[in-house]
Amino acid sequence: MTSTDSGSTPKPPARDPRDLPDVSGLVVGVLGGTGDQGRGLAYRLARAGQKVIIGSRVAERAETAAAGLADMGVEGVEGLDNAACARASDVVIVAVPWEGHAKTLESLKDALAGKLVIDCVNPIGFDKKGAYAITPEEGSAAEQAVALLPESRVTAAFHHLSAVLLQDPSVERIDTDVMVLGEVRADTDLVQALAARIPGMRGIFAGRLRNAHQVESLVANLISVNRRYKAHAGLRVTDI
Questions:
Q1: pTM here?
Q2: Which of 79, 121, 162, 210 has the fewest beta carbons under 10 Å from its own?
Q3: What is the rounded distance in angstroms from the CA atom of residue 84 to the CA atom of residue 238?
């Protein structure tokens, strides 16, 4: 007797984790897009054909950064103040300094409502011994974002990328994996697909947001690696 004959419903085949959505039509905003990391991400995504909006506290600074990317040969980049950037974007990357993370998100709670937010902020400090991880009260920068943005869909990704490589127009590919964390598979799939738009990159699901602290903290180790070996090291996950 087959499962259909017995009245049970056959299970659908498992989804291929490599089957990711088409994100080419999404508008991506980058808060902190005038800083090295944010500007680098904006450049790479725009170079891949994504519509990108750079956000800054001051609109003129964002416009200047967008014009600079246009001078580097990429199209489709606009500069707006942070609130306007958030409202005009489908997906918003938070790439502000850790020191301004909470204040920035608190001020944009309404503008970011209903948006997919990608937090790539690393709570890192420095002393005479080098870089070290900071543990926020909420557990991680991403979890702080969840607490401050209750009406947004928060994910975490793009923590381990070299700003130097991101901004270097002579670098065609950045061979690295992007650890993606979040609570909803549809959201993490979308973030993985965005990462895959950049040649050489691959988005890898790395767990729920309660695991974000160790991903954010690993940047302190990469800084030590890069200083010792004069490199721009990233990460690769094996056997996937």
A1: 0.93
A2: 210
A3: 40
What DSSP string describes 99-160?
GGHHHHHHHTTTTTTT-EEEE----EEEETTEEEE---TTSSHHHHHHHH-TTSEEEE---S
> Has residue 2 got a pLDDT over 50?
no
Task: Give residue-wise pLDDT tens across range 21-37.
Answer: 999 999 999 999 999 99
Look up tokens 């699901």; give the residue. 205
Question: How is residue 26 written in tokens?
Answer: 């999404």
Cα–Cα distance for residue pair 115/97, rounded to 1 Å: 21
Q: Roughly what angle, to the nearest 10 degrees, separates helices 36-47 and 59-71?
A: 50
CB 43 within 8 A of CB 71: no
Dihedral over alpha carbons 23, 66, 47, 203 (to 10 degrees): -50
